[in-house]
Specification:
CATH class of the largest domain: Alpha Beta
Oligomer: single chain
Order of helices and strands: EHEHEHEHEHEHEHEEEEEEEHH
Number of domains: 2
Helix content: 25-40%
Strand order of the largest sheet: 8-9-10-7-11-12-13-14
Number of strands: 14
CATH architecture of the largest domain: 2-Layer Sandwich
Structural class: alpha/beta
Mean pLDDT: 97
Largest sheet: 8 strands, mixed
CATH topology of the largest domain: Dihydrodipicolinate Reductase, domain 2
Radius of gyration: 19 Å
Amino acid sequence: MTEPIRWGILGTGNIAHQFARGLADTADAELVAVGSRSIETANTFGDEFSIPRRHASYDELAADDGVDAVYVSTPHPFHKDNSILLLEHGKAVLCEKPFTINAGETKEVIDVARQRDIFLMEAMWTRYVPAVVRARELIAAGAIGDVRMVQADFGFRAGVNPEGRLFNPDLGGGALLDVGIYVTSLASMVLGPRPAEVVSTTQIGETGVDEQSAMLLKYPGGELAVLSCAVRTGTSVEARIFGTEGSILLHSPFFKCDALSVKRGGDEEHIDLPLEGNGYNYEAAEVGHCLRAGLKESDVMPLDETLALMELLDSIRAQWGLTYPME
């Protein structure tokens, strides 16, 4: 592909706005279409971002021959159907995390993508920001020796709205799927996607969703991940990676950090890596890279790892006895 990647966005909520702003700072990418459930909201979104084609349904967007890739920005329970619709129309898909509600749904989407030989990727934007890329490079180079432990937290205090996305079980509400995916994905990136042991506990709130939880993962080599997430408790939102020869701190907020600190012995190095754009541009650039290279998935966020992460989240919820109404 020599022309710009022609993007569509499915959904017009807050995260769709963030991604649209990121696309504006993505080289060789052009936002050409938006799909909503009404022409009014499609037009409002289209006017804001100067999008030429506005669709009054997701089916219309899926059928738009002028679109190469689509970002799925809808709430968790709709990711499966939205993604499959797009894949069946031959569109490359970047699906917002968590990828789906559970691993069964994730496998359905991946199977369709592989059967149709179409690109699919989970939108774990954190993996592509420069500071996190540098952390991976340092770990691979042995800068902190053998990694032994990962600590990460992601918590914020939101007001309880029983009908809102965060607190409504019908929308897959709760901390685990909303921000727990960040800490588990970070642990997976560093230590691998399949821990040998998982121990977790949670506090279920008045609306029936997990408001804060803690997770302890043990890996086959004895490595540990100590993780927490919350939607009613503000935390430091930092991530630390400890090795036999040193450690790496991803500064707060780690999910879009612009600096890291590396400790080795008595020395500490601070590395500033400011974001270009709002950070969503990096995952869009990865999709563009993969499409131009003829790849069907990203080696930074491979589909088998996405599935393993959803299986991990399922196993954590099973320990709590928490299921969603649509399951």
